[in-house]
């Protein structure tokens, strides 16, 4: 009843559902207010789709794949469209960066960088497919047999993306899916849908045929669930939390769909004493530890929220880390000089407070933060702000060390030997990313080889390359995004065996 009343009141809601080349409202008229996390106030209204909208979008994608031109479009034309999209992203960089900042709470500069990375992803997959040959020739051991392995699009791809990097995560799925010749439906997070809507508009402007790209803005329990279970969906790609990802996988299993899941991480940042042997090296390691833990208020799947530091340098390192963390400038992402924005929602703020409270109850030592900041001109009291927090004297028995916080919280554990450092780094159900800091190259290579994480940085944290695979071990998910493997997720492999001189086999005497 509430949603019906709200739908009638908000007549100016954006048409954010795109089906078969047309922008529309939700079929039942429902809407959702989108909040600015810096002020906890609505700043726009979008359509709130449901299962019927999902069905319509999937049907459009199915028709476009089975009957439309896109799957058979020459590779060169598909690549050219992806490059046009990249150019449009560059053109709209400032507008999209600002929209990402206001929607997700991150700083405008972070939003701009996201747009740059999205353009890079589209260009990378354009270059990747244009550089491929017609197929792999297989030596069948006979001059009368021609045998090749070719790759074809999967079909209709359903994509579900998270709220922390809405534009970036959408591009990691959309670019390879289109490069491979698929059609798709996408559901961005209901909290941060705006830049994904903008990206679909750019695809439309670039000339993508109607029905190839479809978007339904709405909640996961209706739209996302329908995507996962629908019989006309051939692949489901999900980025988000472990619990939701498990439900997606279970629903997809009924139809034996292809599934790609990226489910977060609990990422170690291992710092050896020899990485701090000079003042410059010490400053770099501390600076990178701040970057690892607190960029985008820690709302990053690969955030280095677990500092694992050699005991001999722990006190000096943590004291300096806490001093600098306490000076990070919090505020609305659109304000000048702000280094870190708010959390995305009240739910995320409450969750972060709960993890810090449990850690202190379990014996952690608070070195800085641990509370909401005082309001200021750039930091309204109603906003979802939380101070960067450093928790010392942590151990693996604590929830805050085991579970993904997705907030500006850094835990500190210590070690004395390399084997102990490795054991701590690998003592997690996740395995998305991790880093090791050392001036000893042999030690660095040993640690990198033995760490059970999909990405291991040596003397760095957070960079990724569109040409290198991204994904994790264990409960961080299955499959990979980016790189050649990221394209392969959106393809089926087919073997074509041609007998050039067919003759009777005479297997059966009659």
From TrEMBL:
<keyword id="KW-0560">Oxidoreductase</keyword>
<keyword id="KW-0520">NAD</keyword>
<dbReference type="GO" id="GO:0016620">
    <property type="term" value="F:oxidoreductase activity, acting on the aldehyde or oxo group of donors, NAD or NADP as acceptor"/>
</dbReference>
<dbReference type="InterPro" id="IPR016161">
    <property type="entry name" value="Ald_DH/histidinol_DH"/>
</dbReference>
<dbReference type="InterPro" id="IPR029510">
    <property type="entry name" value="Ald_DH_CS_GLU"/>
</dbReference>
<comment type="similarity">
    <text>Belongs to the aldehyde dehydrogenase family.</text>
</comment>
<feature type="domain" description="Aldehyde dehydrogenase">
    <location>
        <begin position="28"/>
        <end position="496"/>
    </location>
</feature>
<protein>
    <submittedName>
        <fullName>Aldehyde dehydrogenase family protein</fullName>
    </submittedName>
</protein>
<dbReference type="InterPro" id="IPR016160">
    <property type="entry name" value="Ald_DH_CS_CYS"/>
</dbReference>
<dbReference type="InterPro" id="IPR016162">
    <property type="entry name" value="Ald_DH_N"/>
</dbReference>
<feature type="active site">
    <location>
        <position position="262"/>
    </location>
</feature>
<dbReference type="InterPro" id="IPR016163">
    <property type="entry name" value="Ald_DH_C"/>
</dbReference>
<dbReference type="InterPro" id="IPR015590">
    <property type="entry name" value="Aldehyde_DH_dom"/>
</dbReference>
<comment type="pathway">
    <text>Amine and polyamine biosynthesis; betaine biosynthesis via choline pathway; betaine from betaine aldehyde: step 1/1.</text>
</comment>
<dbReference type="Pfam" id="PF00171">
    <property type="entry name" value="Aldedh"/>
</dbReference>
């Amino acid at each position: 009843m509430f949603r019906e009343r709200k739908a009638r009141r908000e007549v100016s809601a954006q048409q954010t559902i795109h089906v078969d080349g047309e922008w529309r409202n939700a079929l039942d008229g429902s809407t959702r207010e989108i909040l600015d996390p810096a002020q906890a106030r609505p700043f726009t209204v979008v359509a709130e789709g449901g299962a019927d909208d999902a069905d319509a979008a999937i049907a459009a994608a199915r028709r476009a794949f089975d009957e439309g031109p896109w799957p058979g479009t020459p590779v060169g034309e598909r690549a050219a469209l992806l490059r046009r999209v990249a150019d449009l992203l560059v053109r709209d960089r400032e507008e999209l960066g600002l929209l990402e900042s206001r929607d997700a709470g991150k700083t405008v500069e972070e939003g701009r960088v996201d747009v740059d990375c999205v353009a890079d992803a589209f260009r990378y997959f354009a270059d990747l497919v244009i550089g491929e040959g017609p197929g792999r020739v297989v030596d069948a051991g006979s001059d009368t047999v021609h045998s090749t392995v070719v790759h074809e699009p999967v079909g209709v791809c359903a994509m579900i993306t998270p709220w922390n990097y809405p534009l970036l995560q959408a591009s990691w799925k959309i670019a390879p899916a289109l490069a491979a010749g698929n059609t798709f439906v996408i559901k961005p997070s209901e909290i941060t849908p705006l830049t994904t809507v903008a990206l679909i508009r750019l695809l439309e402007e670039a000339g993508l045929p109607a029905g190839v790209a479809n978007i339904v803005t709405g909640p996961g329990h209706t739209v996302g669930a329908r995507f996962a279970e629908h019989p006309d969906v051939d692949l489901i790609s999900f980025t988000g939390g472990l619990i939701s990802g498990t439900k997606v996988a279970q629903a997809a299993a009924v139809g034996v769909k292809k599934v790609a899941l990226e489910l977060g991480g609990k990422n170690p940042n291992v710092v050896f004493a020899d990485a701090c042997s000079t003042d410059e090296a010490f400053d770099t390691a501390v600076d990178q530890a701040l970057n690892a833990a607190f960029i985008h208020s820690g709302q990053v799947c690969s955030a280095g929220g677990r500092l694992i530091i050699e005991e001999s340098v722990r006190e000096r390192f943590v004291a300096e880390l806490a001093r600098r963390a306490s000076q990070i400038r919090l505020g609305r992402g659109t304000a000048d000089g702000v280094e870190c924005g708010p959390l995305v929602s009240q739910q995320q703020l409450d969750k972060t407070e709960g993890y810090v409270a449990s850690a202190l109850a379990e014996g952690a030592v608070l070195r800085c933060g641990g509370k909401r900041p005082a309001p200021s001109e750039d930091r309204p009291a109603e906003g979802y702000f939380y101070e960067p927090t450093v928790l010392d004297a942590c151990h693996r028995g604590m929830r805050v060390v085991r579970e993904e916080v997705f907030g500006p919280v850094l835990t500190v554990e210590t070690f004395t030997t390399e084997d102990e450092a490795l054991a701590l780094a690998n003592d997690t159900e996740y395995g998305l990313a991790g880093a090791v800091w050392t001036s000893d190259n042999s030690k660095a290579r040993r640690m990198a080889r033995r760490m059970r994480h999909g990405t291991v940085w040596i003397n760095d944290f957070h960079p990724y390359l569109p040409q290198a695979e991204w994904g994790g071990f264990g409960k961080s998910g299955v499959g990979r995004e980016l790189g050649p493997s990221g394209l392969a997720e959106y393809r089926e492999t087919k073997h074509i065996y041609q007998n050039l001189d067919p003759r009777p086999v005479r297997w059966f005497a009659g």
